[in-house]
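Next comes the chain:
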Amino acid sequence: MSENPVQTEELIEERVAINTIASATLEGVTARPITVEATFTKGLPGFSVVGLAGNDIQEARERVKAALITNGFVFPPLKITVNLAPSDYRKSGTHFDLPIALLIALNKESIDQEDLYVFGELGLDGRVKSSSQLFPLILSLRQQGVIRRAVVPREAMAYLSHIPGIEYWPVETLQEAIGLMKGTGMEGEKPESAYEGESLQIGGKSYYYLREYPEDFSEVKGQEVAKRAALVAAAGMHNFLMEGSPGCGKSMIAKRLRHILPPVSEEEILAIAKHQFLDGQIPDFQPRRPYRAPHHTATSASIFGGGSNTAKIGEVALAHHGQLFFDELPHFSKNVLEALREPLQDRRVHIARVHSKVSYEADFMFVAAMNPCPCGNLLAQSRVCRCSEAEIKRYRNRLSDPFLDRIDLFVTMQEVEAGDRGSVDSATMHRQVIEAFLRQKERGQERLNGKLNEAEVERYCVLDEEAQKVLEQAITRFALSQRSIVSLKKVARTLADLVGFEMIGRKELLEALSYRRRRK
C-alpha cells in the first residue's frame, strides 16, 4: 500500500537535525568519552535526559532552564530529548550542564565542532563553574590521546593549565560559550605549566624537587644503621620495615624520609594531583611526593577504597608515587595486611563491587614500624618484657611470610643512649638520593630500583664475579626464594648507585644481605 504523499511531506518537515557535543564521564578513575545529543520534536512540551544519567545530571534540567531563561532565551514549545551516548553505563557529574545548555540554545543552528570537548557546571545566572571531576576527566582523556581542544570554566584554568598538549577555550558565562560555538571572537589558549623548586633535565625529560626539610634527620640521635637503611630506601624507593622499642625513633625516621625522596616528573605530579582531586582535595602542584599514614584502626575500605554503588579511592591510591607509612604494623587487621600484598607486588588495586569494578594505580614506597613484642620491651636492656612466649609468637604471626617477602629492607633499631648525637642532615642525604636517581635515569630505567620487574633486574642489576659467588653462597645458606633474590639484587643495585659503581660488587651485596629479614 503506497504512502500518502501529504503525510510523507509532513514527516520530512518534522525531522530535525540532531546536534552533538563531546563530553566525558568518570568510570572509577578513568574517563569515558560521551556524546551529548539532542532532538526537538513536535508534541507536548517537555525536557528529558536519557542514557543512564545520574541524579546530578537529572538535576541539570533545572539549572539549564534557569540559566537559559535568565539570559533571555525562550524555550521552544517542543519535546526536548537529550541523550548521553553510549547508554550502557552510568554517567555522573555536573559538568554536563554546559553541553546540554548549548545544544538547546543552538537548536536551530548546525554545530560543527566534532573534536571539541565541552565541560562546565552552570549557575542559575548563567555563570560557568568548575567541578571536582574536571581535572581527572581531562587528564585521563589526554593520557588516552583522545582530546586536543576543550571548552572549560575560566576558574578551572588555575589547575587545568598544568595539563599539557591541550588547547583550551576558557569561558565565564553561558553567553560566552554560545558565542564561541558560533565561532565569534575567541581564541584558544595553550598555557605552559611551571613548577616550584629545582629541576633536572635527563633525556629530554624534566624532573622536579624541593630542598625543604621542615623535619630534619639531624634531629635523629644515633640510629646510624637505620639512617643508612633509610637513605637506601629513599634512593631506590624500596619498601622498608623498622623494628624497635617504643621511643627509639622509628616514627621520626619515617616522617623525615618523605622529604628526601627522589625528584618527580611532570606526569607523576599530574597523577598525584588527579588522585587528590578524586579525594576532594585541592592540590598545590608542588614537586613533593605524597605521604599517607593511616591509623591502625582504619578499615579496609578506607585504606584500599570501596563503596556500595560507586567505588572510591583509599589511602593506597593517595600514596601513589609517594610514601605509605604504617605505624604499629602488627595492630593493623589481618585483612588489611594480606590485601596489601597485591599493590606491593603489582602496584595496582582492584575494587570489585556489585555495581562497579575499578582498577587504579598504587605505586608507592611502603614504610612500616613495629615493636618487637606487645609490650615493646623485648629488646630493651633497662626494662623487663612482660610478654609470654605465646603472646610474642601470636604478635609476630600477624605478619605472614608472603607479606614480609615484599619488604626489601629490615632494620632492628638500637636503644637510645645518652651520648647519641645527630650525625647527618636531610640536605646531605637528599643530595645523595638525587645523585643515585641521576645514575638510575641515565642508565635508561623507566622505574627506580625498588620497582623494577624481574626482566629489568636481570638487565640492570649486574653483579661482578666476586658478588656472584657471594650470592650463590647466600642462596644455599639462607635458602633464598626467587623473590628474595630479586629483592637482594635491587637493594644491592641502589647501594652501588649511591657510590657510583657501574656493577654491583661484593661489598654492596654483603650490605644488602645485612638488611635481610632474620627469621625468628
About this structure: Residues 5-15 have pLDDT under 50 and may be disordered. The CA atoms of residues 118 and 223 lie 56 Å apart. The radius of gyration is 29 Å.
